Amino acid sequence: MVTDPIGDMLVRIVNASRVRHASVNIPLSRVKLSVAETLERNGYVQNIVTKGKKVKKVFSVDLEYVNGEPKVHEVKRVSKPSRRVYMSVGDIIPVRQGLGKLVLSTPKGILTGEEAKKENVGGEVLFTIW
Asked: What is the mean pLDDT of the chain?
């Protein structure tokens, strides 16, 4: 049993990209699918495809590479089940001098830091990625 499904998803993506896999399968949930769509929107993964039926549903994430190097170098989980971290819109700052992204769970959905500033909402900080 996984106690942190978003953390598990992120570890699967990072590990698969480090060993140069073309894609990785992740058990389906609405939150994880929304996080994957946010990563796709920001160019960290290529394509998302849902597979399976009923209980055995998974989604496949095609990983993004630039000149043979993975686009996802590192992911740091900020808010965990044991310690939730929240950020207001005024506290959102760039990650790695703008080279990375901050991903938040907001009332308007899963957004990056830049999108949350445009929407003028804060929320729970899920992770940073670069």
From this structure: 95
